[in-house]
Prior knowledge:
It is built from five helices and 16 strands.
Amino acid sequence: MQSCYAYSAIIPSGCLRSSMGALEQHYTIMVVPNLDVLSWNVRGPNTPAHCVTVHDLMVATHCHLACFQETKLAAVDGPLAAFLSGYQHNCFTHKPAHGTRGGTLLVWNDNYIDLRDIVIRHFSVMATVSIKDCGTNFCLTVVYGPTRDNRKQAFVQELRNSKPVDDVGWLLLGDINLIYQARDKNNMNLNLRRMWQFRGTLSSCELKEIHLQNRKFTWSNGRRNPTLVRLDRVFCNKHWDLTFECHGLQALATGLSDHCPLMLSSLAGPRQPQPFCFENF
């Protein structure tokens, strides 16, 4: 597994006058942190074949942290978590499912990152993530949004309540089960009231979506004339975006779930700086 360093950049830090009276240019080495995160609604690894598919994808991805939603598991022990992680991670936390609904599993390797201050809420798991190589910290929220309409108001309120203080980086990801724009769905069967509610929540939380580079939708109902929706998403605030400026989001291929896995990872070298703009509606 690769280091949590993405690259180092040497930047000018100012000019000082030497004892001989000449100006000397001084430089600072800036380390840009690297973090590879997988987010996936796995639709319940509750059969041996299902578990093997999750295991095989994890072996192929080499991520530092994996966040699985809808495990449909009431309990997860160490051996199962290790197998699902492809034996690449040695720590985990699990939010139990209620019957066959929900369930969230986070697995990580503590040689590279630490997760602390873990809080399990009704729709989410929150933690502080620390990258050991460079000491970078940020707040992580992994969500599994409700499918029932009568629970979505409580869900968006929990998102609003999860907003950290202004100088803390925040990464929010998972199966949101909400959309905020018509182009997130391939038909016009839209709940406009919920869309506006979600838009308002993103604006209140000062979150922007990290662009998914290679896919328009992340979920399909699998029918002959399928409904396609972008339900799985990754959002961040300005502080996180500036800290992890070289990261991008891509969808991975799998035949296991009707949701595609999302991989947030470092791009090859630094990207050109772009102005930050959260979703203000």
